[in-house]
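1st attempt posting a full record on here, be nice pls
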Amino acid sequence: MTVFDPTTKQEEVFNTAVLSLISGLFKGYNATVLAYGQTGSGKSFSMGGTYKRAQEKEPTVGVIPRVHESAGIAATIDAMTSGNSTSLEAEAEGNASDTSRSPASGSRVV
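the predicted structure (as tokens):
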């Protein structure tokens, strides 16, 4: 578990606490990123950041858009090198218990 102070940049949060989890996804491991804290402490901002600016590479882009981009790049590389098919699913602010079923086809759900 890592606790970040209020001055920590979004990129540092992602690189420190999340980036290493992405490679594990492609090895068959599950990963969860949880933001916990009191109301107004910045949980939603840390996870989402400024969604409308996500494509502009703004420093305020949060964890979820960064995971989406990084996992997409990793999935493309994995498909090119191994021929595997990858499906990316994400759920925020909800119950994800029924979204991570392994398909019978042999494809990986990330």
